[in-house]
Structure formats: C-alpha cells, structure tokens
Specification:
The complex is a heterotrimer of chains A (about 325), B (about 290) and C (about 250).
Chain A (H helix, E strand, L loop, with lengths): L7 H21 L3 H26 L7 H17 L5 H24 L3 H21 L1 H4 L5 E2 L9 H23 L2 H11 L1 H6 L4 H27 L1 E2 L6 H14 L4 H18 L3 H18 L3 H17 L1
Antiparallel strand pairs in A: 1-2
Helix pairs in contact in A: 1-7, 2-7, 2-10, 2-11, 2-12, 3-4, 3-5, 3-10, 4-5, 4-10, 7-10, 8-10, 11-12, 11-13
Chain B lengths: L1 H33 L6 H17 L5 H24 L7 H23 L14 E4 L2 E4 H23 L1 H11 L1 H6 L4 H23 L9 H16 L4 H21 L2 H18 L12
Antiparallel strand pairs in B: 1-2
Helix pairs in contact in B: 1-5, 1-8, 1-9, 1-10, 2-3, 2-4, 2-8, 2-9, 3-8, 5-6, 5-8, 6-8, 9-10, 9-11, 10-11
Chain C lengths: L3 E10 L2 E11 L4 E5 L6 H8 L7 E6 L2 E2 L5 H6 L2 E3 L12 H10 L6 H5 L3 H20 L15 H13 L5 E5 L7 H16 L3 E6 L2 H7 L2 E6 L2 E7 H6 L1 H8 L5
Parallel strand pairs in C: 3-8, 3-9, 6-7, 7-8
Antiparallel strand pairs in C: 1-2, 1-4, 4-5, 9-10
The chains are: A mainly alpha (about 325), B mainly alpha (about 290), C alpha/beta (about 250).
C-alpha cells in the first residue's frame, strides 16, 4: 500500500482527463445498456472505495455500506415526494442522514471492539431492509416509492453524466483524504493500533471520520441511484450489494486505492457478460471469497506488495 | 379468551426461543473457543432442515430417526468444516475468518437456491396435526416435542461443560490458551469438538423446527443474524447468557408480534442489541465460556 | 522538582495483586531504571501510567499536570511516550514514514489544514521529515530509510522504536525492555544512543531485566518485587541492598 503517490496536481490532471473521456461515452453509443453499466461502475466504484476506506485503510470490517446507500436513497425519495423538496437539497440531506447513521452505529459499537462493530454493522444493514419492507406507512413497503424523476435529467445520458461527475468528485475527495496524513493515520491504526495510540493518534476519532465520510458518499450515490431507477424499494438494501463490494475490495486489494477501482469496473462488467443467474453468480462470488481467504488474503495489490517486500529483502 | 391467547403466544415464543438458543449457543461456543464469528452458522441450520426434508420424503425415515440422523451428519460436517477451513485460522485473523465463513455461507445458501429453488417445502410427519388439549388450549404436539428435544440438548451440553473433563478443558481454554497448554490440554482437539457440537446443535435445530414451519434455502440467514444479536447481548462466548437471552428474545418477539405489527417483532432483537451495546457493551451477562 | 510523580498505584487481576501501592518520583533530565524479577509488576505499572491499562487505584502526573485516567493517546500528547516489550512498528510503511507518523499529532496541524495541504502543514511535514532523517542517522538506520520496516532485524526494530518515541519531542520516554533479546554489540549501541539523546535533555525511564545495562546507565534505580517497591535510590546503593539481592537470588541458604 505504500506507493509513492503521484503528486496531487498530476493525479488531479489524470482524473480530470478520465472524467472528460467518460463524459463523452454517450456520444459513442446510444445503447442504454452501456450507460446503465457506466452508472453501475461509477456507483460501485464509490461504494467500494468507501468500504476500502473503512476496511482497507482503517482496518474495520463493515457491512453497513449498503445501509448508508439505501438510507440515502430512501431519504432523498421521501424528502422529494413527501416534503416536496428539490432534489438538489435532498441530495446533501441524504448524505447527512447517512452520516448520522454511521456515527450512531460506529460510536456505539467501536467502544466495545472491532468484532462488535462488524456484527452491529451487519445487523444494522438487515434492520434497515426489514424496516423498509415492514414500515409500510412510511416506505410503502415492498411496493416502494415510485415516480422519482429529476426534471431536466430524464434522458439516460443526462443521468449518466451526472452520476459519473458526482462519482469522480467523490473519488477525488477520497483520494485527497487517503493521500493526506489523515489517511496515513488510518493506516497506522490498522497496522498497529497500540503503537498509534502511544503516538498520540486517537483511534476512535479517526475511525468515526472514516465511517462518516464513507457513509456520506454512499448516501449520495444511493440518492442518485434511486432517481436513476425512478423508484426506491427495499431491494436497495439487498445483501447482494454488500457481497459484490466485498469481492471488489478483497480482489482489488484492501488498502489499494486504484486496485479497488479497477476491480469495481471489472466486476460490474464481467458478470453481465457471463450471463449468470444471480444465485449462480453469488455462489461463484462465495467460492472466490473462500479461495481468496485461504490462498491470497491480500488480493491482487497484496501480491504486488509481497513481491516488492521480497525485492527489499534480497537487497539487504 | 385473552388469557389463552397470551399463553399461546408465550408457548410459541418459548418454542422459537429454544431454537434460537440452540443456534446461539453453538455460535457462542465457537466464538469462545476459536475467536471466530461463524457467518455460515445459519446455513448449517438450513442444511439440517433441508436434509430432514429429503430424509423424510425420499428416504422415508421416521420423525425421531430423522432428527437423530441429521444431528449426527451435522456433527460429521463439523469435523470437515473445522479441518478444511477453520483450523488454519488464528483468533487474530478476525476479518479473514468472517470473510471466509461469509463466503461459505454464500456458497451454501445460493448453491441451495440454485439446486432446490426458493419454493418452501413442508416436511410431513405423523404428528403434524396432532395437538394436546390443556386448560382450554390446543398445544401442538410438534411444538412440545421441540421444547423437549431442545431442553434435552441443553441438559446434555450443561452436563458436558460442567462435569466432564473435556467440558472443563473447554472452559479452561476459553479463559487462557497458555495456561491450558501447560496443563496438557490440546487446543486443537478441544476446538474441533466445540465446532462439532456447535454445528450439530445447528443441524439439530434445523431438523427439529423443519416440520413446524416450512423449509427453504434462505431460512438460515434470518436466524443467524438474530443469533448474532443474541450472542452480543448475552455476552460474547457466554453460553448460558446466550441461552437465556435467546429464550427471552423468542418470547419477546412472539408477544410483540401478537399485539403489534410484525415489523416490530423482527426488529426487536436488533434494537435491543444496539441499546445493550450503548449501555452495557460487554453484554448483559459478561464474557467468557461460562455455564 | 520532579518530572514524573506516581502515587499509590495498584492493579490486580484474576485475583493476583500485580502492583501494590507503588509510589516513586523521577527527576527531570535523568535516566532512571525500573527493575525486578519476572512477574514483579514492572510492565503492568508501565501499562497503567501510559494509559494502556486501567489501574484500580493511584494517581500520577507529569510536571504538574495530572495524567490519571487519561487515555493512551492523550498521554502521548501530554509528553509521555513509550516503547513496547513486543517491538511495535508499522511493518508495511517505510522507516521515514514510521517516524513521520509518530510526529504528526504533535505539530498542531488540524484536519482541515492537512486536507488542503496548507502552508503550515507542509512546513510541519518538512520539519518532521528532517527530524526523522536526523534520528535515523543517530540510530544508524539511515540506509534503510525507504525500506519497509518489516525488513529490519529484531535489534534494528528496537532502535526504530526508540527513534519513533523521540519524534514528538517528549518530556519523558519510557522504554519497556529495550535490550531484551538483543545481541551485546547492539546493546552497547542502544546504550550509546540513549546517553546521546539524554544529553539533549530527554528524561528516560527504563524497564529492564538486564542488571548490567541498568546499573551502568541509570542514576536512580527503583526495584519491584511481587508488585511492591523494595528499593529506590542511587544505583550503587540499590545494587548492594540485601532485599534486592534476596529478591533476585532467593533467600540465601543458611
């Protein structure tokens, strides 16, 4: 994970270039399939990077990403349809709702242990799904809340460009955070928490930072996603998203910024190309997860790191 | 009458509670001795249920035979599970163990959906519609059997942990690995036994509950997540705590579900867990493998 | 004036009294030793005063600042740093990064400044880097500056840990068994480095088993046995104290 990162202006230029290229895609293909895939890639890239921030950098296994994603979606949907807010106000509000949820579960469980946080995050995600399905008065249950449209963004190409732009901004934000000394503190906490504490680093504060930032980003993508689908229903909390994110982070290499983004792209495209039914796909993901944990826990980036470590050892 | 309604709810709650307890105790035992949170635990419950369905409909085994057979098979599966996957994990590999068992759970559940589809199946037994009348209430015989079987399992586990050498070894190990090693207790065989017992309890729970409700491949997930909440509330690694909490939760859910929308009943466990974590993080009964 | 004052420290667990009513004072600018046979409570008492273990009773303060009950990271910010018995380092980070991390919470740069790479942040980073290089030179690790810390040998890791503890310009550095398991050449090296750092007005409290090491370095020595202080004074006096001899060697045969 140590990588002389590119100096900020160079990375920023690179990211800007990629962004411009991505914006041009709708001119190359009118196919909605590719635009949908593009939106999926952008969404998963942000979600996975958020998970990477919590797990790969802070070392906390969390299953709550999907909860923040769905809360953002439902939050925005309810604010727009029930309270008549403009989407542009509902979007940051969705982020704030997700952030507060993150702080709640983070603060309550981190004081006990990482184990508790993992379990609580999982339970929270499930709880959200259950409430979304059962609190019919608020959420209309399994029928969901339809009619989520964004005036001026009705064409698929518009939604695509909006989603991609927001994703790029969020990813840039993540990069700024992770390449700063704050990211370094998070890594320190993950690598050796008592040592970090003895150096004045407050683990709880940093972990809560990671969770909040991650939650906010997920909430934003959730809001955009449901307005793209024009409907939000309890399936937005499906464990499927969590499983997919985990595969992306594990295979890309927890702690590797670009590895996870690359894996997000690959795993958003490949499964559809293979035309698997969803249970077969998930069974396969499960097998991959098991194999990865038994054979190469560090993912692709981890293998690269091992090789560079070997090179140093032979030098000395 | 309102009274019998209440009593009926209590009975149903008790039945569900003891099933929760079987699953939660297994989870707690595995955590207490290996430091591993077994995400695949619910799938063994599901497999126990599915296996009992096939045993009854394809092999035409009787009710009691099925339950016994499934429990034994589950125990054997526990051996494989331990040797193939868990034996190489250390307690420090916490995330790895979660992800590994999560992967196994994904394979088992989705593989199950792929093979058997999500259509619920009913397990026929000669007792399915039999009931005993007591004080104006209809007590379904199957539920009474469930209570009986679970109670027997509790007693067996209790006797094992408190009166046998192996059980004492388990308690010793959960307290201090080094001290136990010095006294000559082989960590690996005791850990393996814990896994065998844990998985067997899950399988037993599945086989026992299968005829009461229906079976399908996704039935494990709802249960296991509640089992997590129970284990946290009861105190990680605390078996008795898990059992008591489980029964309380079963009854609580049943009572809530009887008077309020079902929503709340399902959420009760999770909400309780978050509340307990906020105010008493080590659980209501504290940690450690205690009887 | 004392730098560190510990009063009435007590800690028991699993029914064993690990530390009982421990009190002592450390003078500023000194190198003091805390010794005692295995199980005498040395490391437990250190874990308590550095915030890693909650004691049952006791108060302690650095200069006139009461540190009792503070969390570990807050103590570090108050000027008390430590090393660990099991050597700790950020294995996957380079040596320079290891040292820079150790300084980053102490230079007054806030999160927002850090994110936008403000001028103050960059100056602080450069200063930390320079200090890191300086400490790496002093400890003889300069050639490994860009290597991941995992490649260091055991003794070298101990040196790195000492350097890291120094980065924040602490008032008091507690070294927990700095030379345990280290070869004699390296021991002498560590001794030299501690003396050199002490010249620059850093106070050390060293917990150790190695009597020779302590006696040659430390002006003041505190001796623990079974959780209680049995001696506290100049090294020569302590070395000859019959209670200390008895604690280490057992009761002499009659």
């Amino acid at each position: 994970m140590r990588r002389r990162p590119l100096p900020l202006p160079a990375s920023a230029a690179g990211i800007a270039a990629i962004w411009l290229v991505l914006l041009c895609v709708p001119w190359l293909t009118a196919s909605e399939y590719w635009l949908d895939t593009g939106i999926a890639i952008a969404t998963f890239a942000v979600l996975s990077t958020g998970l990477n921030l919590i797990y790969g950098y802070a070392g906390l296994l969390s299953f709550a990403q999907v909860a923040f994603f769905g809360l953002g979606g439902y939050g925005a949907a309810l604010l727009v349809t029930r309270l008549g807010w403009s989407f542009w106000l509902a979007l940051p509000a969705a982020a704030i709702i997700a952030t507060w949820a993150g702080l709640l579960i983070g603060y309550s469980s981190l004081r006990l242990s990482r184990h508790a946080f993992a379990i609580v995050s999982l339970s929270f995600a499930l709880l959200c799904g259950i409430v979304a399905r059962d609190w019919v008065a608020l959420t209309r249950g399994s029928m969901g809340i339809p009619g989520l449209s964004l005036p001026g963004f009705d064409a698929p190409a518009h939604m695509y460009r909006l989603t991609v732009t927001v994703a790029v901004i969020l990813l840039l934000g993540f990069h700024v955070l992770l390449s700063s000394r704050l990211g370094r503190a998070l890594q320190a906490i993950k690598l050796n928490e008592p040592l970090a504490q003895s150096q004045g680093i407050d683990p709880l504060r940093y972990k809560l930072l990671a969770i909040s930032v991650s939650a906010a980003a997920s909430g934003v993508m959730g809001a955009l996603f449901v307005f793209h689908l024009t409907i939000v229903d309890p399936s937005v909390f499906d464990f499927y998203y969590t499983e997919t994110m985990l595969i992306m982070v594990i295979l890309g290499g927890a702690g590797s910024f670009w590895g996870v983004i690359a894996a997000s792209a690959v795993f958003s495209i490949v499964p559809d190309l293979l035309r698997f039914s969803s249970d077969l796909r998930l069974t396969l993901y499960g097998l991959v997860l098991v194999a990865a944990m038994l054979l190469f826990p560090g993912g692709f980036a981890g293998m690269l790191r091992q090789r560079s470590l070997l090179r140093w050892k032979t030098r000395l | 009458m309102a009274d019998t309604y209440l009593l009926q709810l209590l009975l149903n709650g008790l039945v569900i509670g003891v099933i929760y307890a079987l699953i939660a105790m297994g989870l707690s035992l595995i955590f207490g001795l290996l430091g591993i949170v077994n995400f695949a635990h619910g799938e063994f419950y599901m497999l126990g249920a599915m296996l009992s369905f096939f045993a009854v409909t394809d092999l035409h085994l009787g009710y009691w035979t099925t339950i016994l057979a499934v429990t034994l098979v589950a125990g054997c599966v526990g051996v494989f599970f331990y040797h193939l996957f868990l034996s190489s994990l250390r307690a420090a590999d916490f995330e790895r163990s979660i992800l590994l068992t999560l992967g196994i759970s994904m394979v088992l559940q989705n593989g199950g959906i792929y093979l058997w589809t999500v259509t619920p199946r009913i397990v026929p037994t000669p007792y399915s519609y039999a009931a005993v009348t007591l004080g104006g209430m209809q007590l379904p015989v199957l539920r009474l059997f469930t209570l009986g079987i679970a109670t027997a399992a509790f007693l067996a586990l209790y006797l094992l942990l408190s009166h046998t050498l192996v059980g004492k070894a388990m308690r010793g190990l959960s307290q201090s690995s080094d001290a136990a090693a010095m006294v000559g207790i082989d960590h690996r065989s005791v850990a393996r036994l814990a896994v065998i017992i844990g998985i067997a309890l899950s399988g037993l729970a599945g086989a026992t509950l299968a005829p009461v409700y229906s079976v399908q491949p996704t039935m494990g997930s709802a249960f296991v997540f509640k089992a997590f909440a129970i284990v946290i509330i009861g105190g990680l690694g605390n078996i008795a705590g898990a059992a008591i909490t489980a029964i309380m939760l079963g009854i609580l859910e049943s009572l809530i579900g009887g008077f309020f929308p079902l929503t709340l009943a399902d959420s009760a466990g999770f909400i309780a867990m978050i509340v307990v974590l906020l105010f008493k993080p080590e659980g209501l009964f504290g940690r450690g493998v205690r009887v | 004036m004392t730098l560190l004052t510990v009063t009435g420290l007590s800690k028991s667990y699993a029914g064993v009294q690990a530390v009982h009513d421990l009190s002592y004072e450390i003078a500023p600018g000194s190198i003091s030793g805390l010794i005692g046979p295995n199980g005498s409570g040395k490391s437990t008492s250190i874990d308590c005063i550095s915030g890693f273990l909650r004691p049952d009773e006791g108060r302690w303060s650095l200069l006139d600042r009461d540190l009792t009950g503070m969390s570990a990271h807050a103590m570090a910010l108050a000027g008390l740093t430590r090393t660990f018995q099991t050597v700790r380092a950020y294995g996957e980070m380079t040596l320079v990064e290891n040292l820079c991390v150790a300084a980053q919470e102490h230079d007054g740069v806030g999160w927002w400044q850090a994110l936008r790479r403000s001028g103050a942040c960059q100056t602080a980073d450069a200063a930390a880097c320079a200090r890191a290089e300086e400490l790496l030179e002093k400890t003889g690790l300069a050639s490994y500056r860009d290597a991941p810390a995992q490649v260091l040998s055991y003794g070298q890791s101990k040196l790195l840990a000492i350097a890291a503890a120094m980065m924040a310009r602490p008032r008091l550095v507690i070294l927990d068994e700095p030379v345990a398991g280290v070869n004699p050449t390296m021991i002498r090296q560590i001794e030299t480095i501690i003396r050199a750092l002490n010249q620059q007005d850093v106070t050390f409290l060293i917990v150790e088993h190695n009597m020779d090491f302590i006696m040659s370095l430390c002006a003041q020595v505190i001796v623990l046995d079974a959780g209680q202080k049995i001696a506290d004074g100049p090294a020569d006096a302590v070395r000859r104290d019959p209670r200390v001899i008895e604690a280490y060697l057992g009761v002499a045969d009659a």
